[in-house]
Design brief:
It is built from twelve helices and three strands. It is mainly alpha-helical. The chain folds into two domains: 137 residues; 93 residues, no CATH class. A hairpin with a 3-residue loop joins strand 1 and strand 2. Helix 1 packs across helix 7 and helix 8 packs across helix 12. It is globular, with a radius of gyration of 22 Å.
Length: 302
């Protein structure tokens, strides 16, 4: 019996040592990648400061989720507060106390928005630049003009930290922690401007902001990296069984503007209706036309 207990203790101790070594390795590897240096010169964009450009930038910030994460005043706020996964806080983008703006030049804003890189060359954590890299020069310029026009907000936002589960999910490719790693920085060639028209092409441009949750194939499923109690994303392809195959354009517009499905059920609050409700008629129609042009896919095919 003593021999059995002795060997049980040895095995348990060995497992603890292995787990400790693995934990240290995960921490060191993820830290190295989170502090990697990116050196490149971002393409400059024209930044107009007239009223129309700033208003257009405000609209882009609303429908692309900038205001949703950073707050209506762009002063920063919590995004995810799940310690085992991450404590993610969107930064204060204003010139106020605790804000990033004093450290950012125009090229730094481009670097952050399109490339997911801080002004000092390190990758931004969870900044969805992989969705914004397609933005036209005009849209990026207007967005920067809007950010720079906002009043100063004095708010010290807590530092973002990543927990052990978040680090493991990141290494397993299930958590897009550092979007900068997903972008070909040297060969990024977005258009100078994009035509705002009720077309499937414009819809494809707009729908890039939906890929993070609904998947690159837009067929929905569990959202990678979020806590298990978060709702799965819906299938947006025209699949008649699990997608939008039996929806009308009016049904789609109602869901995005009112947060209610055709059968009267309410969309989960995780779906940012506060964002989609601000889409213009042209934008809604363009997105609908793009979704209808997709190949029907079964739910969860991502």
């Amino acid at each position: 019996m003593r021999v059995l207990l002795k060997w049980t203790g040895i095995v348990a101790g060995s497992l603890l040592v292995i787990l400790a070594v693995a934990a240290v390795a995960v921490y060191l590897v993820t830290n190295a990648r989170m502090n990697a240096a990116f050196t490149f010169v971002p393409t400059s964009v024209p930044i107009e400061t007239d009223t129309a450009s700033i208003a257009r930038g405000a609209h882009i910030a609303a429908i692309r989720g900038c205001s949703d994460c950073h707050g209506a005043d762009l002063g920063g706020k919590p995004v995810i507060e799940e310690p085992p996964v991450a404590m993610l806080y969107a930064t204060n983008l204003t010139t106020g106390r605790g804000g990033m703006a004093p450290e950012y030049k125009d090229e730094d804003w481009v670097r952050a928005i399109r490339h997911g890189i801080r002004f000092d060359g390190r990758p931004l954590i969870f900044m969805p630049a992989q969705e914004y890299q397609v933005l036209s020069d005009e849209d990026v310029g207007d967005l920067i003009a809007y950010i720079k026009s906002r009043p100063a907000v004095d708010r010290e936002v807590p530092k973002t930290t990543v927990g052990p589960i978040g680090r493991l999910l990141y290494l397993a490719g299930q958590f897009e922690l550092l979007p900068a790693e997903l972008i070909d920085h040297e060969n990024l060639r977005p258009p100078a401007r994009i035509e705002e028209a009720p077309t499937a092409e414009y819809g494809a441009y707009l729908v890039t902001g939906c890929l993070g949750c609904h998947g690159h194939g837009l067929s929905g499923g569990r959202i990678p990296g979020v806590p298990p109690d978060y709702p799965p994303a819906s299938n947006l392809t025209p699949d008649p069984e699990t997608g939008l195959g039996n929806w009308t354009e009016a049904d789609f517009a109602g869901a995005l503007r009112e947060g209610v499905r055709p059968d009267g059920t309410v969309l989960d609050p995780f779906m940012p209706v506060q964002l989609t409700s601000q889409l213009t008629d042209t934008e809604l129609r363009a997105i609908w036309l793009h979704l209808q042009s997709l190949e029907p896919k079964p739910y969860g095919g991502r």
